[in-house]
Design goal:
It is built from 3 helices and 23 strands. It is mostly beta strands. The longest helix is centred in the N-terminal third of the chain and has 13 residues, at 10-22.
Length: 433
């Protein structure tokens, strides 16, 4: 048998497969192969001594004519590593029972408590359809499905975009609704309940521990729903300058806690006496204001944006994001990237609780809800290949610096690092064809 050395048309193969899923014939797919566009990417994200993630993405876009456009995306994430529990470091070693109740783990003296059993795989599917419905008016609708080991999410969205002023101005309105279900290993803990400790994890039948553990469980699973509204204005200023303004409103209702986060209860010397599960409000309303400007120059494109967000948890944040594409030649470019982020702490954030004090209604030691600054610094290099495809590489450094939001630290906690810096490296390879 003679083997053919004819190169395989990957775009055609993927286009045919995608059309089969949509109910389009292979002949139709082959006829419009050149209109299929694919974007693929493989990204690595690694925090120092913490979480590591590897993400693969493939996105497809198809114009069926007359601006009837389908787009779809498949994302697969693999996450491993250690995640901060919210408990404070201590001058002596600490032993914790795992969230499932099965087994213990030890944290060395002076170290931030991290649960090293963090492991998950996420699969996400997106599909979107866009088409004109009247002169200068376009509609778009889509679905999203995401599944993890203990998290399931369904979402749908719809939007309208209206062009006016000879298509130099576009007004847009978007809506989306998501329903999420969380079913953590071990179940949903009771808010602010004392975390059960298993002194004999090797003992298979420990009725006393099982009773204590079960008494801290509220239910096996819980859910939340999220409604987002977005109003947008895009304006062409001149042949080089484009601006965009958005206002977003987001409301969340339901289970917002992280079932794996604790707070340490410490005495006057700062020594941990017990742990309690966190509790956050079951509603959240967030407003965001976004401005973006793109300016085309002879040698490239400058892109800068600013976002201000505020919510009824009292988290105010500011984000500045800037990119500068510099064309090195007709087929190659580099793109420096800088992003700065600053946020205030949630009104119920506290790094620990004091023994003997009345339990608050809401409390969380999750550093992601605390006061912080963060920045990203990176560089992207892209090239257009002889066949018109594009290959690019991105390397970035990320640093997050939590801060003390005005809490006094009793006793030994003054010598502990309660707000450790999080550092990460991001690397990505992308291929467009």
């Amino acid at each position: 048998m003679q083997l053919s050395h004819k190169p395989i048309n990957i775009s055609a193969v993927l286009a045919t497969a995608t059309c089969a899923l949509l109910g389009v014939t292979a002949a139709q797919a082959e006829e419009n192969t050149e209109l299929w566009k694919f974007d693929t990417a493989l990204m690595y994200y690694g925090e120092t001594d913490r979480v590591t993630a590897v993400e693969g993405v493939i996105a497809a876009t198809k114009d069926f004519g007359d601006e009837h456009i389908f787009s779809g995306k498949l994302t697969i994430d693999g996450l491993t590593g250690a995640s901060a529990t919210g408990a404070v470091a201590q001058p002596t070693a600490q032993t914790f029972t795992r969230p499932s109740g099965n087994g213990n783990y030890e944290i060395a003296a002076g170290e931030t408590p991290l649960d090293d059993t963090f492991h998950d795989t996420r699969l996400q599917l997106n599909a979107q359809w866009t088409q004109p419905i009247a002169q200068d008016l376009r509609a778009s609708g889509g679905l999203q499905f995401s599944n993890e080991y203990d998290y399931l999410s369904f979402a749908l969205n719809g939007s309208l975009a209206y062009d006016l002023n000879q298509k130099n101005t576009t007004l847009s309105l978007g809506l989306s609704y998501a329903l999420d279900t969380i079913k953590p290993e071990g179940g949903i803990p009771l808010a602010l309940a004392t975390v059960a400790f298993n002194p004999n994890p090797e003992q298979e039948d420990s009725t006393e521990f099982e009773d204590n553990y079960n008494s801290t469980r509220a239910t096996d699973s819980d859910s939340k729903n999220t409604l987002d509204v977005m109003l947008g204005l895009t304006q062409v200023i001149n042949r080089r300058l484009l601006m965009q303004f958005n206002y977003g409103l987001s409301t969340v209702d339901g289970y917002t806690n992280d079932p794996f986060k604790y707070l340490s209860v410490v005495d006057e010397q700062g020594l941990t006496q017990s742990l309690v599960y966190e509790n956050r409000p079951d509603t959240r309303t967030r407003h965001s204001f976004y401005w973006q400007t793109k300016y085309a120059m002879d040698f490239g494109v400058a892109d800068i944006s600013y976002r201000f967000a505020t919510d009824d948890w009292k988290i105010d944040s500011h984000t500045i994001d800037s990119r500068l594409r510099i064309n090195l030649s007709d087929t190659t470019y580099i793109q420096p990237h800088f992003r700065y982020y600053q946020q205030a702490a949630a009104e119920f954030f506290q790094p620990f609780m004091q023994e003997g004090e009345t339990l608050p209604e809401f409390a969380s030691a999750d550093y992601r809800l605390g006061e912080m600054t963060a920045y990203t610094l990176g560089l992207k290099y892209g090239m257009e290949l002889d066949n018109g495809d594009e290959l690019s590489f991105r390397l970035e450094y990320y640093q997050q610096s939590p801060k003390n939001a005005g809490f006094d630290e009793p006793g030994v906690l003054q010598d502990m690092e309660l707000y450790p810096t999080v550092k990460a490296v991001i690397a990505q390879v992308s291929y467009r064809f």
